[in-house]
Structures are given as structure tokens and as C-alpha cells.
Write a structure and sequence with these properties.
CATH architecture of the largest domain: Sandwich
Largest sheet: 6 strands, antiparallel
Number of strands: 14
Strand order of the largest sheet: 1-7-4-10-2-14
Order of helices and strands: EHHEEEEEEEEEEEEE
Distance between the termini: 26 Å
Length: about 220
């Protein structure tokens, strides 16, 4: 059944990005084509002056260096991500807290971590299916400490939904009725990890979240 439990707060953040080089490679090829075409069709009686040719060669060298530098950075990033992927093996089977609106329902249980009371004293938590239909909604009173709200997988009619990836939305209003944003996160058990499109992701059952969204790793 749904409920709330006080928990301790923790945070850690990280980010990873990748800079592809296909456009730079295309720019280099285009530059070489233009330079050779220009040299081949120049007027023999008025050849390109030395200064102009030198400037173009310098431009070529600069682009070539940038291309080589990007390729080196990509290799380093790939090695770093491979190391991170190996390290995530220790996370499999453990529960983690991530910043995401994707809610993993695992073994009939899903958890949302709500913040301590601030401008808003209560929030409305909505669980939605992949089509955006609200399955369950509940108003929760916030306390002095962060709370863990639990969904048991049942909708308003009492129908039990299968394990999978759902969505969660949390809204709040201040005492005067003004809408205010709410920071929340979700908790799930890690079932695997992968590199997708150059990004490291964690799998929480059917839910997939970026490794950089990891916010808390319980000890033990």
C-alpha cells in the first residue's frame, strides 16, 4: 500500500558528454578540395602569392590538429566510460536513488523520494502510464525530513499493474495557492548498465536513466 517513511538525504552528481568529429572531418575534406581546385585552376601568369598560400596551409594545419585532438579526446572518453561501466558491476542488485521522472515498478513496489517541507507543506504525487493516463494520485503532507512515498502498483480502481517503467509527476502549491517547483527523485534496484550512444546508463528494471542522474548510493 502507499505510504511515507522518513529517510536521510544525500546527493552526488556527475556529467559526461561527447564531442563527435564527423563535421570536422567533412570540413577538412572540403578545405582540401577547395585548396587543390584553386591551385589547379589558378592563372599561371598570376600565381597565388606566397602569403596567401601560407595562410591557407596554416588553416589546414589547424583544422588537422583539431581533428586529431578530438579523436584523442574521444578515445580517452571511451576508455573512461569503459572503466565506469566495469565499476557499475558492483551496483547490480543494489537500490539507488536517481533524479528522474521515470518510475521503476519492481516486484510490485515503486518509491519516490520527496523533499522536506519548505514553501510548500504538501504535494500531489501522480503516477502515469506510458500513454500519459493517470493511474494513481495522492496528496502527501511533507515533514521536517525528506520522505519516501511508496506506490504498490495499483490504480484508483484497485487493479494491479505489471512491473515496468511508469512516469511520476509531483506538484505543489504554497499557502497562498501559488504553484511552486518540487525537487524529487526515485529509488530502484539496479539490474544492469550499458553504454548507449556514447552515454553510460543504468537499468532499473524496465527504466533506463543516465549514470549522471545517480544521487544516492546506500551503504552496505
Amino acid at each position: 500500500m502507499s505510504g511515507t517513511t522518513a529517510i536521510s538525504a544525500g546527493a552526488a552528481s556527475g556529467a559526461a558528454s561527447r564531442t563527435p568529429s564527423p563535421r570536422l572531418s567533412a570540413d577538412l575534406g572540403t578545405f582540401l578540395t577547395l585548396l587543390t581546385t584553386q591551385l589547379r585552376h589558378q592563372d599561371p601568369t598570376k600565381p597565388m602569392d606566397t602569403e596567401t598560400l601560407t595562410q591557407q596551409l596554416v588553416q589546414f594545419a589547424t583544422v588537422e590538429q583539431q581533428l586529431a585532438g578530438n579523436q584523442t579526446l574521444e578515445r580517452l572518453l571511451s576508455l573512461q566510460q569503459a572503466g565506469q561501466l566495469a565499476e557499475t558491476a558492483s551496483l547490480v542488485g543494489r537500490r539507488v536513488t536517481v533524479e528522474s521522472n521515470v518510475l521503476p515498478l519492481q516486484e510490485g513496489r515503486a518509491e519516490v523520494v520527496l523533499p522536506a517541507a519548505g514553501e510548500a507543506r504538501r504535494v500531489t504525487v501522480q503516477v502515469l502510464d506510458p500513454a500519459g493516463t493517470t493511474l494513481h494520485a495522492e496528496t502527501v503532507n511533507l515533514g521536517a525530513q525528506p520522505l519516501k512515498w511508496v506506490w504498490n502498483g495499483r490504480d484508483g480502481a484497485g487493479t494491479l499493474h505489471p512491473d515496468g517503467a511508469y512516469y511520476v509527476a509531483v506538484s505543489a502549491r504554497t499557502e497562498d495557492g501559488t504553484a511552486t517547483p518540487v525537487d524529487f527523485s526515485v529509488t530502484g534496484r539496479v539490474t544492469g548498465a550499458a553504454r548507449t550512444d556514447g552515454e553510460l546508463v543504468l537499468r532499473l528494471g524496465a527504466a533506463v536513466v543516465g549514470f549522471d542522474r545517480l544521487r544516492e548510493l546506500p551503504g552496505g
